[in-house]
């Protein structure tokens, strides 16, 4: 997958002022997968495409599992006890959902119990700090996300880590696009109506996000600048699950999270899907109106990317075991189907590729934030 191209024509001094618009430009690149998209003619579009990396995982996972797992496990004795998998978000959040599916397969492959430990807060940084400070023996790993790993270090110089290079990367999973939903009982039936209300009452329409300065927050900042509108963006430190509770309780007018986080509430009618920020020709995806840079020139597509990380210094033979297991999980057709059904663009990467992606994200987001 090619990295998106980010650049700024004048560096912004925006740091933690979440109400100040950004002024970058970007040309999207790379390929997106989508579930149940429909074209402007109302025809169903292709549901699933296997990316180059997915094909790579399919062709190499079995080989890696025999070459790496067996010898490495024999050399290190790893694993011989339970593994803790830290999720830096609340139960029910998109990262938690992915992690529980992933760890079930990881436990089966490694023949140990993998215990999910939710450590939410700080826009994902509290749990990520726990991973950072863990013993580097392979028995504490966790969910890696580009918000705490590539965005928050720019905004929070007090973090004990400065970038993803201070972690051990196991492998990447893929990414998701941002969405906007409202309470099912709200007055807004379309995103256009929602935006018009915001234009008529600048700062009066509130949207919850799962953390200050996270990727969804930055996406809304980008839309505000492109559309000439001002929302009241309300961050919830515990992640997307808390933001969803806020819109369900009508504490806020809308919520911007990954589609996974609101799928059940949309199906029940408790929430109404309005918009998805994604570069597609389709008019809608799973009920979300597709919002593109063609309608709002200059708007960037900022995507959540996720993977698996551990503390820096995990022995190479242990990393080899975890990396081989990761690639085998990412070649599992049922697991891939579940992720795609949840709106993921599945794009498996190995340890080195995932680190390179996070390093690139760190640089790109730094440019967006004027760092």
Automatic annotation (TrEMBL):
Gene3D superfamilies (alphabetical): Bordetella uptake gene, domain 1 (3.40.190.150), Periplasmic binding protein-like II (3.40.190.10)
Keywords from the named record: Membrane, Transmembrane, Transmembrane helix
Coiled coil, from the record: none
Transmembrane segments annotated in the record for this chain: 54-74
One Pfam family cited in the UniProt record for this chain: TctC
Domain of life: Bacteria
Key word Ion transport present: no
Matches recorded under InterPro entries: BUG (IPR005064), Bug_dom1 (IPR042100)
Keyword Signal: no
CDD domains: PBP2_Bug_TTT (cd07012)
UniProt-listed PANTHER family: BLR1237 PROTEIN, TRICARBOXYLATE-BINDING PROTEIN
Family: Belongs to the UPF0065 (bug) family.
Name recorded for this polypeptide: Tripartite tricarboxylate transporter substrate binding protein
């Amino acid at each position: 997958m090619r990295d998106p191209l980010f650049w700024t024509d004048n560096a912004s001094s925006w740091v933690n002022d979440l109400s100040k618009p950004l002024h970058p430009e970007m040309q999207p690149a790379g390929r997106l997968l989508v579930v149940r998209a429909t074209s402007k003619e109302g025809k169903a579009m292709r549901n699933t495409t296997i990316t180059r990396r997915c094909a790579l995982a399919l062709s190499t996972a079995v080989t890696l599992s025999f070459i790496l797992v067996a010898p490495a496990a024999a050399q290190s004795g790893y694993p011989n006890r339970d593994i803790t998998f830290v999720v830096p978000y609340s139960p029910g959040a998109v990262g938690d959902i992915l992690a529980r599916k992933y760890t079930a397969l990881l436990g089966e492959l490694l023949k140990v119990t993998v215990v999910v430990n939710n450590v939410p807060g700080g826009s994902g940084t509290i749990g990520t700090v726990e991973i950072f400070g863990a013993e580097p023996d392979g028995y504490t790993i966790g969910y890696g996300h580009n918000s705490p790993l590539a965005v928050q270090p720019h905004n929070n110089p007090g973090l004990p880590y400065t970038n993803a290079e201070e972690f051990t990367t196991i492998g990447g999973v893929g990414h998701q696009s941002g969405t906007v939903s409202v309470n099912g009982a709200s007055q807004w039936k379309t995103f256009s109506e929602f935006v018009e209300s915001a234009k008529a009452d600048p700062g009066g329409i509130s949207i919850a996000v799962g953390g200050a300065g996270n990727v969804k927050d930055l996406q809304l900042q980008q839309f505000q600048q492109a559309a000439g509108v001002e929302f009241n963006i309300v961050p919830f430190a515990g992640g997307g699950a808390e933001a969803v509770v806020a819109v369900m309780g009508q504490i806020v007018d809308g919520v911007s999270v990954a589609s996974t986080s609101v799928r059940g509430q949309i199906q029940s009618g408790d929430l109404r899907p309005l918009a998805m920020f994604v570069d597609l020709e389709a008019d809608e995806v799973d009920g979300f109106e597709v919002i593109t840079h063609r309608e709002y020139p200059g708007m960037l597509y900022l995507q959540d990317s996720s993977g698996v990380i551990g503390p820096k210094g995990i022995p190479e033979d242990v990393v080899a075991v975890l990396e081989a297991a990761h690639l085998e999980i990412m070649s599992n057709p049922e697991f891939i189907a579940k992720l795609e059904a949840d709106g993921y663009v599945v794009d498996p990467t190995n340890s080195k590729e995932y680190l390179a992606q996070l390093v690139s994200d760190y640089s790109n987001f730094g440019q967006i934030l004027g760092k």
